[in-house]
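Worked example

This section walks through a single chain of length 83. The input is the sequence exactly as stored; nothing has been trimmed or padded.
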Amino acid sequence: RTGEVLADICASTGAVVEISGEGETPSTLSDKICTVQGSLEQKEAACRRVVDKLRHLQEVADQEPGVFVIIVPSCAAPIVVGQ
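Given that input, the structure is written out below as tokens.
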């Protein structure tokens, strides 16, 4: 069923997780944008579940390095980097 995994992540974590649809991202971006909303604990749990799904999809074990891209708003980049 379409959206079943996303619905499960939302239900189990209490977070609101949305994936951008067609026309909701710049035409130069072929990837989708995943937005996670909720309390700190809800967002952390939902992000963990999303990363777990990506690791499973890529057949990467927990102890193996994996490559995942997280895009942060430009105004938040200095905070993430530590400037």
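What to look for: The beta strands are 16-19, 34-37.
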